[in-house]
């Protein structure tokens, strides 16, 4: 069985993604700015972050217990308690032979000590008094339960490379080094608008034959999850002058313009000609489902992406093609999404010819087995199919029907669809 829409010569998804991301270059290059780390979440790092200190900055205990000299416990199992070292309150003298120190997790290991014995292996696990004799039930090895200075991060080492999208963990790591500011690439600006006399913004009365503009709102919602500047140009009527004015205005203000629909060769589809009159446009027909039509172009300054008009196709191509393009345009080099195989709990119909991005629901049972099923009808106009999903079931172009119980590749929703 062959997909009736899979005509010869369609571009593969992999070809489209490679070609598209190869064009993701800012016209005037990346600009760099310094920001305080509290404002750096999800920004793209422009310069490497180098540690000015060792982490940890001192030898410290990995356990609550007693700091000792190993050789002492090879000769005797009893030592005199001469002091205490708590986090933030170190013992400042040098440990002498026959002595031990009460020490808590994270506290400085005193000079002279070369191991920490966990408190469970001693006669005293609770309150202790200076001068007490502590009995040890085990003899440690040198270095036991001691975290060495620089064990995690060494001074002058590179901890984060340029192109990294900064996560909460990254921010915490940078803060732990006492670094207040980082260099990041400037935020890119993206404009979004819809075209069509049949399209109405929410709040307006629908005339006969009109529909509400779901695509623009979905695109704005999705893109708002990225750390970018967004420009909403609203709905523009099917008027050549109005569309051209909007594109020319956006070209001077933004890095990328994204629209949905209107780039075919229909009688009322003006975008194609207008984009080409300003710059250039490539129309791609891809071997994917949903989302066969896709357009990439370049205005004088800004990039242009024309997504399919069908609501699901619009979001699928935004997610699978436009977002990797945007990530590279931002300067991100670590962009990737996890995928893995899961058993399908139902049969899935598929014709050979196009790569399918089926909307699915991943679940895990009490035994820990992960299964996936579709969200039902997969029509490109059925927005509930993506609203009810938490993943894509990805079936390659040459795959056909899948039986219940077979393994399929799944890609859990991330970034803009979470």
Task: Summarize, please.
The chain is of the alpha/beta class. It contains 8 helices and 25 strands.
Fold and architecture overview:
With 418 residues, the chain is α/β, with parallel strands linked by helices. The protein folds into 4 domains: 13-29 and 186-330, MoaB/Mog-like domain (Molybdenum Cofactor Biosythetic Enzyme, Chain A, 3-Layer(aba) Sandwich); 33-55 and 151-185, Alpha-Beta Complex (Molybdopterin biosynthesis moea protein, domain 2), CATH 3.90.105; 60-147, Molybdopterin biosynthesis moeA protein, domain 3 (Beta Complex), CATH 2.170.190.11; 340-417, Beta-clip, CATH 2.40.340. The protein is built from 8 helices and 25 strands. The chain has helices spanning 13-22, 70-75, 168-176, 214-223, 240-251, 271-278, 311-330, 384-387; strands spanning 32-36, 49-50, 60-61, 65-68, 78-85, 99-103, 115-118, 133-135, 146-147, 158-160, 181-185, 189-195, 199-200, 211-212, 229-236, 256-260, 280-285, 288-289, 293-298, 303-307, 340-344, 355-364, 370-374, 391-395, 407-412. The protein has a 6-stranded mixed β-sheet with strand order 15-12-16-20-19-17, with helices on both faces. Strands 7-4-6-5-8 form a 5-stranded mixed β-sheet. A hairpin with a 4-residue loop joins β19 (293-298) and β20. α4 packs parallel to α7.
């Amino acid at each position: 069985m062959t997909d009736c829409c899979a005509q010869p010569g369609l571009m593969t998804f992999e070809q489209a993604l490679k070609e598209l991301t190869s064009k993701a270059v800012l016209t005037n290059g990346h600009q760099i700015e310094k920001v305080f780390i509290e404002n750096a979440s999800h920004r793209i790092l422009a310069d490497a972050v180098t540690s000015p200190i060792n982490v940890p900055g001192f030898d410290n205990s990995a356990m609550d217990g007693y700091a000792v000299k190993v050789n002492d416990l090879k000769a005797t199992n009893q030592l005199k308690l001469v002091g205490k070292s708590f986090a933030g309150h170190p013992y400042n003298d040098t440990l002498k032979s026959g002595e031990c120190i009460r020490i808590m997790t994270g506290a400085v290991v005193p000079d002279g000590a070369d191991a920490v014995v966990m408190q469970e292996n001693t006669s005293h696990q609770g309150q202790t008094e200076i001068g007490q004799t502590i009995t040890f039930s085990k003899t440690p090895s040198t270095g036991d339960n001691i975290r060495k200075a620089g064990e995690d991060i060494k001074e002058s080492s590179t901890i984060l490379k340029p192109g990294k999208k900064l996560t909460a963990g990254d921010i915490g790591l940078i803060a732990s080094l006492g670094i207040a500011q980082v260099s990041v690439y400037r935020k890119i600006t993206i404009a979004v608008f819809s075209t069509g006399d049949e399209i109405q913004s929410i709040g307006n009365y629908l005339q006969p034959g009109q529909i509400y503009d779901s695509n623009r709102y979905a695109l704005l919602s999705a893109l708002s999850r990225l750390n970018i500047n967004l420009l909403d140009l609203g709905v523009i009527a099917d008027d050549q002058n109005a569309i051209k004015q909007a594109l020319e205005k956006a070209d001077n203000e933004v890095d990328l313009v994204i629209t949905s629909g209107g780039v075919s060769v229909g009688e009322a589809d003006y975008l194609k000609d207008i984009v080409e009159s300003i710059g250039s446009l490539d129309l791609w027909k891809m071997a994917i489902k949903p989302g066969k039509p896709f357009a990439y172009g370049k205005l004088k300054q800004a990039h242009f992406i024309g997504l399919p008009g069908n609501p699901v196709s619009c979001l699928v191509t935004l997610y699978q093609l436009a977002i990797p393009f945007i990530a590279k345009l931002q300067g991100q080099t670590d962009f990737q999404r996890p995928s893995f195989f899961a058993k399908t709990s139902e049969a899935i119909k598929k014709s050979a010819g196009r790569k399918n991005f089926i909307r699915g629901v991943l679940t895990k049972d009490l035994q820990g087995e992960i299964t996936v099923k579709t969200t039902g009808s997969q029509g490109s106009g059925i927005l509930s199919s993506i609203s009810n999903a938490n993943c894509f079931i990805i079936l390659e172009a040459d795959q056909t029907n899948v039986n219940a119980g077979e393994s399929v590749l799944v890609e859990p929703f991330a970034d803009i669809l979470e």
